[in-house]
Each structure stands twice: as structure tokens, then as C-alpha cells.
DNA sequence: CCGAGTCGGTTGCTTGATGCAACCTTGTGT
DNA sequence: ACACAAGGTTGCATCAAGCAACCGACTCGG
């Protein structure tokens, strides 16, 4: 994807995509939002090549979307956390999730649910709690496995 | 970007990005939403390579995000229109636009404004009209050049 | 009637990003 | 002493993107 620069575009959508439009980038942000903070976790969870993951994390840190913090020394090991700028991507992720849910025709329902932490209500495509009506932000919500995963979770046992 | 498939991912964000996460795809959707419906318009406006644009348009039609309709015959010429599925991407585009606006520090303000057609109010990052509070959809809103472009519109004259 | 231009592509070639496996460093467990 | 973990880096093969040239059907000007 080159480095996803869109020369000549003066639109903020293009600007946003220059930063988060590269392959894997939004999925990395999603994973970090869900609590996967370490290189190995991200690599295994996503199945992304290690050099690519390394490049993306570096770029995300440079762009002030992630912050790299040591969680131990000798040997030094690091975790990645979302900055406020990174957390602000939440509405975009929620919108994409909702679009995928609506149009990918999963047999057993959505694989992932976003719920409002304080009231447990479902979060809609605008990041608004369906139950209490509040306009939410990243910290107000949590992701849970949805009916789509729960129903198919022993799928891989079938061939045995 | 390969063809943007994310094997093993069961999340709807990954599903969505398999379709609209390829380079140029979301910008094509944005342009069509803004009324650029023809191959040549899109190519000139985006600066994308013609073969790539051709491939993206084909994929978007296959995925039922765009519809290809003839607007004249002999020679046959086509226009691309958004389907309902395509129009449903509007909240995601609005969220990305808002994120880009907030974090790209444009000197003269945002280059593009989204306004509610019926009341003229500004649309926020959730696709909600700031003026009347209505939760909007693609057809309820319109894009206008913002202060960022208007202020810099004769920029290209400087070298002369 | 001929040449130039328009529109919507396709083809061939080059460049650059991605995928994959191997390796490195620092340290722990046995 | 050996294997293993974490967090990467390096080298190489492959695949997608960028670029320019071309094509077919038609219009317009002279």
C-alpha cells in the first residue's frame, strides 16, 4: 500500500487514511483497545508478519496514536497503550464494525458486541448506548464475544 | 495491500476492512458520495492509476457497494452509483473525517464541512446534526468546502 | 475524408510493500 | 549446558501499486 499517502488530496478523510489506512493498522488499534498490548500477543492474534507489525507499531508511536512503555527491565520489554488520539479512533472502529455486522450476513449473529460499561446496553453504529441513550467514548464501552463466536466456538473440533 | 484479506479474523471490523480497507477504496466511495460518478472524474480527482481504479470499481460493484449504470449508448458509457450498502458507509467516513479534522492541525480550519441538508447545521463525528440533534444518514447530509480550502484556494497562484 | 479529442477502460513493465523463515539479544527455568 | 520466551531485525521471494502506452467507439472541426 505504499505508505498510504494520497498526494494532492486536501480532505481530512485522506489525511486520516494516510495514517490509519495502511494494511493491519486499524486492526492493531482494535486489538490494543481490547487489551492486547504486547508484540507477541498482537502478532499471534492477528497473524501479521513480524516485520510488518514492527513497522506499524513504530509508525503508530511516531503519530502519537500509541505509546510504548516498558513493563519490565532486564530484559527490557514493552507494552503499547493508546493515547487520546488513538482512543479517538473508537467511533470510526464502531462504525466499521456496525457496517460489517449489518452486511456480512453472519449466520449466528455478530461475532463481537460492544456494550456500555455502566449500564450494559448495546452500543449502536454511532457509538450511542441503545439502552440509556448516552453518546459514548472509548473508555465507556467494552467488547464482548457475541453470539456468532459463542455458537461456533467448537467448530474446529469437527474434523477430529 | 494484497487484497486485504485478514485470514483467521472473526471480527466484523476485519470483515469490513477486507472489502473497504484496500488502498483508494474509501476515497472512491467518498468521491462517489460527493457526486463524482464517472471513471475519468474519479481518476483525475484522486490521481489514482487507471488500472487500480478499474480494479477497485469492479470489486466495489461485485461487493454491491456501487452499481454501474449506463448513461448513454454508442459508445456505451457508465456511471457508478452507491447502493444502500454503500450509503451505509457514511457514518464510518464521517467518523474518519472528524478524526482527521481534530488531529491533523489544519491552520485555517477543516477543508471539508458536512452539513445537514434541511437545517444547514454542522454534522459532528457521530453523524448527528449539532443544530437540530437529528441522527443523520447519507442522504440527509451534504459536503461543502470548508474554511481550510477557501482560505488557501489561490495557493497555486503563488509561484507565478 | 482525415486528424485530433473524449471516454472508459486494458496491457506491459517497473517499483515498492508484504509474507515468510531465520537469526539475534537478554534473560529464566531445569 | 540446553531449551525456551520476548521483542524485535534481516534477507529474500512474491504480490500489488504506479506509470505510460495503447485500444475501440464515437464526435467535432476543417
What can you see in these coordinates?
The structure is a homodimer of 160-residue chains. Chain A is an alpha+beta fold and 160 residues long. The first copy, chain A, contains 7 helices and 4 strands, in the order H-H-H-H-E-E-H-H-E-E-H. A two-stranded antiparallel ribbon of chain A has the order 1-2. In chain A, strands 3-4 form a two-stranded antiparallel ribbon. In chain A, strand 1 and strand 2 form a beta hairpin. Chain A is globular. The model of chain A is unreliable at 152-160 (pLDDT under 50). At the A-B interface, helix 1, helix 2 and helix 6 of A face helix 1, helix 2 and helix 6 of B. Chain A binds a DNA duplex (30 and 30 nucleotides) through helix 3 and helix 4.
Largest interface: A-B, 52 and 53 residues
Radius of gyration of chain A: 17 Å
Number of helices of chain A: 7
Oligomer: homodimer
Set down the secondary structure blueprint.
The structure is a homodimer of 160-residue chains.
Chain A: H1 12-20, H2 25-33, H3 39-46, H4 50-62, E1 66-72, E2 77-82, H5 84-87, H6 90-103, E3 112-116, E4 141-145, H7 147-151
Antiparallel strand pairs in A: 1-2, 3-4
Chain A binds a DNA duplex (30 and 30 nucleotides) through helix 3 and helix 4.
Amino acid at each position: 500500500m505504499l505508505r498510504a499517502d494520497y498526494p494532492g488530496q486536501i480532505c481530512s478523510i485522506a489525511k486520516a487514511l494516510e495514517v490509519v489506512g495502511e494494511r493491519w493498522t486499524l486492526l492493531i488499534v482494535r486489538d490494543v483497545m481490547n487489551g492486547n498490548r504486547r508484540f507477541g500477543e498482537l502478532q499471534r492474534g492477528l497473524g501479521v508478519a513480524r516485520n510488518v507489525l514492527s513497522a506499524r507499531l513504530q509508525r503508530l508511536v511516531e503519530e502519537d496514536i500509541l505509546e510504548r512503555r516498558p513493563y519490565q527491565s532486564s530484559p527490557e520489554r514493552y507494552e503499547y497503550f493508546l493515547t487520546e488520539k488513538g482512543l479517538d479512533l473508537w467511533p470510526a472502529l464502531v462504525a466499521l464494525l456496525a457496517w460489517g455486522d449489518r452486511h456480512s450476513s453472519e449466520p449466528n449473529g455478530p461475532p463481537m458486541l460492544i456494550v456500555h460499561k455502566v449500564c450494559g446496553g448495546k452500543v449502536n453504529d454511532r457509538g450511542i448506548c441503545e439502552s440509556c441513550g448516552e453518546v459514548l467514548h472509548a473508555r465507556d464501552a467494552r467488547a464482548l464475544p457475541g453470539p456468532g463466536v459463542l455458537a461456533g466456538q467448537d467448530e474446529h473440533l469437527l474434523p477430529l
